[in-house]
Amino acid sequence: MNPAENMLPAGKGGFWIDTGKTGIASWIFSTDHKRIGLLYFWSVFGFFLVGVLLGLLIRIELMAPGRTIMGPQTYNALFTVHGVVMVFLFIIPGFQGSFGNLVMPIQIGSRDVAFPRLNLFSWWLYIAGAAIILTSLFTGGGPPDTGWTFYLPFSERTGTNVSLAVFGVFIVGFSSILTGVNFVTTIHRLRAEGMTWGRLPLFVWSLYATAWVQILATPILGITLVLIIAERLLGTGLFDPARGGDPLMYQHLFWIYSHPAVYIMILPAMGVVTEIIPVFSRKPIFGYRMIAFSSLAIAAAGSLVWGHHMFTSGMSDTAILVFSFLTFVVAIPSAIKVFNWVSTLYRGSISLEAPMLFALSFILLFSIGGLTGLILGAAATDIHVHDTHFVVGHFHYVIFGGSGFAFFGAMHYWLPKFYGRRYAEKPAILGWGLMFVGFNILYFTMMVLGMEGMPRRYYDYLPEFARLNFVSTMGSWILAVGLAILLVNLFRGLRSGEPVGNNPWGGATLEWSIPTPPPTENFAKEPVVTHGPYDFRGAGIP
Amino acid sequence: MDPNLITTNRAVDPVFMFIFGVSLLLLVGITATMVGFVVRYHRSRAPEPTSRAESSIWLEILWTALPTILVMAMFYYGWAGYLALRNVPRDALQVTATARMWSWSFTYANGRTSPRLYVPVGKPVLVNLVSGDVLHGFYLPAFRVKRDVVPGMKNNHAWFVATRAGSYDLFCSVYCGEGHSAMITTVEAIPEAAFTAWLQEEEKAGGDAGKALLEKHGCLGCHSLDGSTKVGPTFKGLFGRSVTVLTGGAERVITVDEEYLQHSILDPGADVVKGYQPVMPPFPDLSRDEVRAIVEFLKRAK
Ligand code: HEM
Ligand SMILES: [Cu+2]
Ligand SMILES: [Cu+2]
């Protein structure tokens, strides 16, 4: 046996060893979608942990009024970096890069993505962008303090290192566009024989819709970021009223990308949940067509609602009328999905294992996020809660309770397939339970604080907000303990847990039909698909 | 007061009630159904699925139509309530709010200025919003009113009416830098007669012109008089102290005298006290006499 193999946890096989290459270079220069998927997974997940740490520090500062552990400038940098890391380095690249790469090609019966080298390049661009962002924190005028939205004219005046950080985000954006192009091409061109559009797993449908958003919306972010840099370095004055510019134009440009970006974060999460629920209910998904269609509808209509971030901005009332209306239109396909998920449970045979618990709690937390979104879509009520902790609570429900919990679900559902070993069930459930409870304490209180009028991005607050802020911080600690239990259990399991078979959950999509871990070639011979993704009988599963 | 007057609260609060009410019903319905199914069809009770239904056109129509009706109702109420926030009553009292990093100042028609927003009870107030530097947000949670204060934007305003006397929080809602969360003041709603008297009163802040200027220009948003550290160094005991400043990147120790104070007000970027950010804006509008009055006051700030 070669020595490198000894370093691998026992039980590894398939793509881990079958090329005979196991050194670091065989990973960071690999064009295998599974290796790239794991590279992405570990990088985005590393940044998630960094973001969590920053989030916990924010909460400690807010635990009591006045200075707790840091000064205002540090606090402002903290929430900015927390937001930038979580949005641009974790959740936007997260699903597509890791689980999209790991399972999408297998699910459509392909050997790899359409452009494997471009895929590797995307990861490298992501790493380069991330490195630039990290550099910006420790050089020049120090970490940016603008909030993740970089609103002008403030971001033009601040002495902190905004230009470099923005340039890093710009590079990460390119990585996102390239992944989008790669995935759209792959899904169009590389489906196996018999893998018709109507047999495409709904996770793939959601990636497909997401990829289009990445391709169409991200360039606008790129342009906007370049304009910020031009504003700072060349003094173009496009957005600075002191030079005849218009700050509202910046806000439009920013949100034209950043609202659709919310769908880059949530659509694949919905796709994950749509995979997990039927498998753990042993029942076909209810309303396949409606779910696939609603992904596309959300992606399309979602590009037209960015103005709901600007109801107080001074934009015209007519614009508010139109954007408020369109925002409510987008709510409808999301509601359809929720109803279809719940109906899938009806008369099923439900097993509550860790992935399923994450999927079910996704439904609940996403519903709370979506319903509070209605308050933000209605013009009258948005005015009161805009820019308060209500919004902070709301979007954490959507991107953490929604996308984040779906990400954990995906980790427990798919990672054992690629590692060949699994975690223990009981600690996973304990971890999930603590996270769920902690999460709600943490963010529900924030929404109440927002209703009471506490603005966001607030280093300090009046005594009347003290009690709930304290409670919220306690919630963050419960969440952190749950998260620690969950992760230690999962990662220890992946190293040295029980070996898993080819199809531990009884899924009918193609990834469960090949060996665990999958070989580099995925399929020994090109598969011919004869049944739908949720046709458990057709797949020969009892 | 006119009982039919549509206050901003009366326009907005019912919309909150409606949306929260419907949302709560939906959430409870979804959760109860989900939990009910999970319990009833748990594998221990239902070892095999008893249905393979893949879709139902009627259900899909039902649960497309139902949310459509609900969200359209929400849209409509939301819009109607918003119009009330935009339609300023004709007899409203006009005040101009000037936001700057990081303080508020309010100017009345007769020229009187104040760091707090005094208003008469029961009378609608139209607040014109002006910013000289970056974006700020004019936020009165008690009245459900918020509007961004955009530099360079003309005719930017919000209105509200206080139906009861009292002191209400006024926050800056748009992030504007280091002192954002300290950019707080209050609305003081007082009876009409008292308000009229207040408006006519000579501006005097303890009879001191220097202190009045500090309040008017928002200096006290960043510099305290009681020795506490805010965004900038405190004024207490400042005169005669020796401090380390950065001049063009080089450190030097100086003793605070009249000349240094004057210079720091007119060109704050030149010497920045070590440990503080170079964020103070210059005040080119101050006349020589005004600067002198401020310096005189600072000399006495012990
Ligand atoms: C332990 C987990 C987390 C904690 C304790 C936490 C806490 C917070 C808090 C308290 C704020 C508000 C700061 C303020 O307005 O003053 C905030 C902002 C934010 N959080 Fe989190 N958060 C966590 C996880 C996440 C995750 C998973 C995401 C996204 C995937 C996320 C994305 C954001 C964003 C985008 C902001 C806005 C930053 C800004 O205002 O510029 N957070 N977080
Ligand atoms: Cu949006
Ligand atoms: Cu502010």
Structural summary, described in words:
The complex is a heterodimer of chains A (542) and B (302). With 542 residues, chain A is mainly α. Chain A has one domain (3-513): Cytochrome C Oxidase, Chain A (Up-down Bundle), CATH 1.20.210.10. Chain A has helices spanning 3-7, 25-28, 33-61, 72-107, 116-138, 154-157, 162-189, 202-233, 247-281, 288-301, 317-345, 354-377, 379-385, 389-419, 425-451, 466-496. Chain A starts with a helix and ends in a 46-residue tail after the last helix. Chain B is of the alpha+beta class. Chain B has three domains: 8-47 and 54-86, no CATH class; 93-199, Immunoglobulin-like (Sandwich), CATH 2.60.40.420; 207-299, Cytochrome Bc1 Complex, Chain D, domain 2 (Orthogonal Bundle), CATH 1.10.760.10. Chain B is built from six helices and 13 strands. In chain B, strands 3-2-1-5-8 form a five-stranded mixed β-sheet, with no helix packed on it. A five-stranded mixed β-sheet of chain B has the order 4-10-9-6-7, covered by helices on one side. In chain B, a hairpin with a 4-residue loop joins strand 2 (103-108) and strand 3 (113-114). The radius of gyration of chain B is 28 Å and the shape is elongated. Chains A and B meet through helix 4, helix 9, helix 10, helix 11 and helix 12 of A and helix 1, helix 2, strand 7 and strand 9 of B. The complex binds protoporphyrin IX containing FE and copper (II) ion (CU) (2 copies). Residues 51-52, 55-56, 58-59, 79-80, 82-83, 86-87, 90-91, 147-148, 392, 396, 399-400, 404, 456-458, 476, 479 of chain A line the site of protoporphyrin IX containing FE (HEM).
